[in-house]
Structure formats: structure tokens, C-alpha cells
Write a structure and sequence with these properties.
The chain is mainly alpha-helical and 199 residues long. It is built from 10 helices and no strands.
Length: 199
């Protein structure tokens, strides 16, 4: 692939991410004003000045507009850039913390608001479980590639599941403690996991 092709793909990805963020911003405003259940896809599309069919090019359901983010490819890239001498847990910790640290404040604020909404709405919690299952598979594949094992190896899957467990605990904690800094809490939680979960 030429550098021109890579630039075109990069521009396309940035444009897509920008459109997704704009749709999510309008959706979150409507959810605040009207409530999640009372807000329709048509209203979100109208507020974002797009057609409902364009909405569905970016999000498959109304739940998806709250659950989805562009974090996965960034996490993969950050994980791949971690020094080779680090353990898988140190590498995933470094990747996750670096990506949160690099996220603009306004995006972190929206992520916090989305997280609080997810914890309050049962159908969003159910949709998040599916999302976290996909993230667990992604982590298993990343780690398996790093250590030369298969993603379905029980040790690799258990490792990936423990990372997801940490994410869930941090999400719940931060929803209950809005003043908490997500990156700090995540780093502390992953450090506890790295140290064998001392209590």
C-alpha cells in the first residue's frame, strides 16, 4: 500500500470517527433532555442533521450509539508498541493507560457520561456485556500473538477475562464516584492485578 493510500485511509478513519462522535454528542444531549427510552433514532438523526439510514451506517442500534467507541484499534496499536521485555500484563496496562492519557478531556467527559448511562439502563448493560465479550476476544488475540500461543488457550482466555473483570469493576466504581479520575483508578486496579490482588 502506498503512502498516498495510507493517507486516504487515515483521513477516512478520522472523518468516520468525527461523524460518530458528533452523532454520539447529539444522542447524549437528547438522552439528558428526554431520557434514554423516550429518545428515538429518528430524533438523534434529525439533531445530527443526517438521515436515519446514515445513522445506521455508523451504529447498528440505539444502544450502539452509547456503547460504541473507536478504542479497539488504538488499543491494538498501543499494545503492539509496548517494549518486548514487558510481561503481557505490563504491556496491556501500559497500552490501556497510554490510550486513556492521550484521550482529549471532552471525549473523556463524554465517555464518563456514557458509562453512567450504561449503568442506569438495563438494556445498555446487556449490550455492554456483548461488547466486553468482543473486547475479551480481542485481548486474547493480542496476547496470544505476543507470547506465541493460541487465543483459545485457557490461560490466555483467563488472562483476557481478568482484564475485562478489572474494566467492569472500574466502570462501576467510576459510575458511583463521578469525581474519580478513570485513568488513575484503572491504573491502580491493573496494578493490584499485577501484584496478585492483595487485599
Amino acid at each position: 500500500m502506498s503512502s498516498d493510500d495510507k493517507q486516504i485511509i487515515g483521513l477516512r478513519e478520522r472523518k468516520k470517527a468525527k461523524t460518530m462522535a458528533a452523532i454520539q454528542m447529539h444522542a447524549m444531549r437528547l438522552f439528558r433532555e428526554q431520557g434514554y427510552k423516550a429518545t428515538t433514532v429518528e430524533q438523534i438523526a434529525d439533531a445530527a442533521e443526517i438521515s436515519p439510514s446514515t445513522f445506521f451506517r455508523y451504529f447498528s442500534t440505539k444502544e450502539d450509539v452509547v456503547i460504541s467507541d473507536n478504542y479497539d484499534p488504538l488499543l491494538v496499536r498501543a499494545f503492539e508498541n509496548q517494549p518486548a521485555h514487558l510481561s503481557p500484563l505490563q504491556a496491556i496496562r501500559g497500552a490501556m493507560i497510554s490510550e486513556v492519557a492521550d484521550t482529549p478531556k471532552e471525549e473523556l467527559a463524554m465517555a464518563r457520561e456514557r458509562n453512567q448511562l450504561i449503568m442506569m439502563v438495563p438494556e445498555l448493560r446487556a449490550a455492554m456485556l456483548n461488547n466486553l465479550t468482543q473486547m475479551m476476544q480481542l485481548i486474547a488475540e493480542m496476547v496470544a500473538g505476543r507470547i506465541g500461543r493460541e487465543p483459545d488457550d485457557i490461560g490466555v482466555r483467563t488472562f483476557a477475562g481478568s482484564i475485562i473483570g478489572v474494566n467492569i469493576s472500574v466502570m462501576i466504581y467510576c459510575a458511583d464516584h463521578p469525581e474519580a479520575d478513570f485513568a488513575t483508578v484503572l491504573d491502580e486496579a491493573l496494578a493490584k492485578l499485577e501484584n496478585g490482588l492483595p487485599l
